[in-house]
Amino acid sequence: MDGRRALVIDDEVHFRYFLRVLLEKAGFAVKMARNGIEALDVLRSWRPDVITLDVMMPEQSGLTFYGAVCRDEDWKRIPVVMLSAVPISVREHAFATIGLTQGPRPALKNRVRRKPCLRSSTGSFPNQPPPDPNARRSPMPKKILTIDDDPYIVKYITEVLSDNGYATCSASSVEEALSVLEAERPDLVTLDMEMPDEWGPRFYRKMSMNPAFKDTPVIVISGLQGIHLAIRNAVATLQKPFDPEELLSIVNRVLESKDAARKAMDGE
Question: What are the φ and ψ backbone dihedral angles of 123, each rounded to 5 degrees?
Fold first, then answer.
């Protein structure tokens, strides 16, 4: 399957990244979209060999997106795998309301529990509005260092973070992490416990001995039991497999608290 492309469309971040990792392990190059609007933007510049499609999404539903694909002479040849908890009878009725006699043949039913989605789309279907040249520039994004020896976990975490506005850097060993720490000076670190050269707690001790980094918050993410005891000063611990929405919530809270403390010290 080398060289094949897949477009994953789902508003639920956990399921979206699960599919991405699954398809990449099978040799696909993968792009993701959170709704029909984003998916159409991807299709205009990047043609996939297959599309996985959720039905119930904000901004633009999977059914409306599927209708647009079926009406395009080029896109309608792309196979679509619809993954949804919506009953087939309901989907068939919905297809009829948008002028289609039938949708994709039944394949898989999405049994993932629905969670509040992460929305990041602007503009009206099908075109995005041009950026406002007079809009105020956003501040530099916060940077997060991800340390883990598993490249799939690193990719998973960094893409969850970058998709939500954070700058990212990564390392797969303690030695590399110390170098990246000096070069990138991150605002927060996510740290695995078990790595081939040294364990995470040793990295944390070395980082804490450096005055420039001793106050950098650390989130421990590990598959080991009892990880809450490994680094007592960690701002949070997450057990693998973890919920990316929980990670984002912790990151947001910790960095907002850090900013508030800095402003209080500066008298702002």
Answer: 95, 175
Q: Which segments of the chain have a pLDDT < 70?
A: 1-2, 59, 84-139, 226-229, 268
Tokens of 54: 């959720």
Report the C-alpha gap between 105 and 99 in whole angstroms: 17
108-144 per-position pLDDT tens digit:
444 433 333 233 323 333 344 454 555 544 568 999 9
Is the Cβ–Cβ distance between 159 and 190 less than 8 Å?
Answer: no
Strand-pair category, 218-222 with 236-239: parallel
**CA pair distance 233, 221, nearest whole angstrom:** 14
Please state, in angstroms and as integers, the Cα–Cα distance from residue 25 to each residue in 2, 21, 29, 140, 159, following that order: 10, 6, 10, 33, 16
CA distance 97 to 93: 6
Q: How far does Cα 156 stand from its chain's mean position?
A: 7
Could you please report the per-residue DSSP string of the chain?
Answer: -TT-EEEEE-S-HHHHHHHHHHHHHTT-EEEEESSHHHHHHHHHH---SEEEE-SS-SSS-HHHHHHHHHTSTTGGGS-EEEEESS-HHHHHHHHHHTT-S--SPP-EE--PPP--------S-SS-PPPP-TTSPPPPPPPEEEEE-S-HHHHHHHHHHHHHTT-EEEEESSHHHHHHHHHHH--SEEEE-S--SSS-HHHHHHHHHTSTTTTT--EEEEESSTTGGGT-TT-SEEEESS--HHHHHHHHHHHHHHHHHHHHHHHT-
Supply 64's token pair: 């409306």
